[in-house]
Amino acid sequence: MMCSKEKPKQGKFHPNAALMQGFLKEEQHRIVYEQAERYPSEANLRKLNAAFQQFYTEIQLTNYLTTTLSYYARNYSKQAAVLQGRELTVLDQPASEEQETSKKEMLVAKEDQTVYSWEQAIHDPVLLTAIQDLPTKQKQYLELHFIHQLTHTEVAEKLDISQQAVSKSIQSALRKLRSVLPKGDAP
């Protein structure tokens, strides 16, 4: 316990003044302190030191918990703000003020409408030519998998064939494409 016998100068406070005031606010601490001051013995000083150490440990624990809770509260607030900024898209609303088409209509392809073609999806003329030279089934499987983002299982279900047949066909098509493309450009 740090106590100075000098009186602090007017207007200046001892750095541990608030700590000492907090310690002495509790009656049991004040009694132990007064006993150590009036009867300065080794036993009384040990009691005072033990009481102060316990008090100081509790303050440190409280400070640690406060700091930790504050940190997590700030992070929670940041995450909540980010999540709040993300609004759920209502698909029935118009895509923009200028358009009357809803977001849902833009996402869902009509049966007679192709969402993308190979020409729109691929900008490399060598790759486009290589794909166009593939058998029709392989082109269809590649289109469903890579352009329409269907899994092998979904492609198989849509075409009523086995998933293994789709996987083998796609792998075969990719091997053919790799053999046609220059080494650095192969998928």
TrEMBL record:
GO terms for molecular function: DNA binding; sigma factor activity. GO terms for biological process: DNA-templated transcription initiation. It holds the Pfam family Sigma70_r4. SUPFAM superfamilies: Sigma3 and sigma4 domains of RNA polymerase sigma factors (SSF88659). Residues 130-178 form the RNA polymerase sigma-70 region domain. CDD domains: Sigma70_r4. InterPro entries: RNA_pol_sigma-70-like (IPR039425), RNA_pol_sigma-70_dom (IPR014284), RNA_pol_sigma70_r4 (IPR007630), RNA_pol_sigma_r3/r4-like (IPR013324), WH-like_DNA-bd_sf (IPR036388). Keywords: DNA-binding, Sigma factor, Transcription, Transcription regulation. This is RNA polymerase sigma-70 region 4 domain-containing protein. It comes from Terribacillus saccharophilus. The lineage of its organism: Bacteria, Bacillati, Bacillota, Bacilli, Bacillales.
